[in-house]
Amino acid sequence: MPIISTRELVKTYSLGEVEVRALRGVSIDIESGEFLSVIGPSGSGKSTFMHILGCLDRPTSGQYVLEGKDVSKLSKNELAVIRNRQIGFVFQGFNLLTRTSALDNVELPLLYGGNGMKTAERRQRAQEALKEVGLADRANHHPNQMSGGQQQRVAIARALINEPSIVLADEPTGNLDSRTSVEVMDIFQALNTDRGITILLITHEQAIAEYGSRIVGFRDGRIVADNQTKARRIARDEMAALPLDVDVEPANQPSVTTTIGA
User: Fold this and answer.
1) What is the number of other CB atoms lying within 10 angstroms of the CB of residue 129?
2) What domains sit in the chain, N to C, each tagged with a CATH number?
3) pTM as predicted
4) HSE-up (13 A, CA, CB side) for residue 220
5) pLDDT tens series, the chain, 262 aa
């Protein structure tokens, strides 16, 4: 059974007297352990598709089955549990609390989950997640003391804290330079190949999409291409040859707080 299955998903937004069809009948099966890249221009429906898969939005019509459960039949509380425990989210804008340490940012989903975990255990799990993304020595730093790449790695650690089976990443390299993008994509590939986490990556860049093992193309709310590919792994010497336009100073991004567990 696919971990994700959709049939004829339609999403229509009403803007006054105008109706905008963001999705126009999307049907797809995603197997457990796949690394799926969704690519398309702005307005193609790819982000709307991800929001529905992440239980952040509901389709106007059609069916979405997640790990054998028909999502349309779930209550708001059940959807909140899925968002907190089964799915990890990574966004382009990092969405970190600016006045909170990296460790506290990573720990947040455990607090929202209401699982009764003791403080010491939460701290240990958050430290382990930061170590996994190479930021053990930055646990007490605030986002404004970190580069954009480091902030995105904190966001990835936060997405992993509840050990999700699926990670949804919406333009995770959109605010990063070329070399840092490679480092972040290497983390996603390791999560997929070493831990078997299903990755769904939204991007408009072909080079980033090629890190996945399957590329699905969106246009005008429809799937227009679906191809298996050889997952791209960039060699270290190739990475070293990339233009040196890296984050040297901490990225001062405006903060947008998203409560995934709510």
Assistant:
1) 25
2) 33-45+84-240 (3.40.50.300)
3) 0.85
4) 1
5) 899 999 999 999 988 888 899 999 999 999 999 999 999 999 999 999 999 999 999 999 999 999 999 998 899 999 998 998 899 999 999 999 999 999 999 999 888 766 677 889 999 999 999 999 999 999 999 999 999 999 999 999 999 999 999 999 999 999 999 999 999 999 999 999 999 999 999 999 999 999 999 999 999 999 999 998 877 665 545 555 555 443 333 444 333 333 333 3
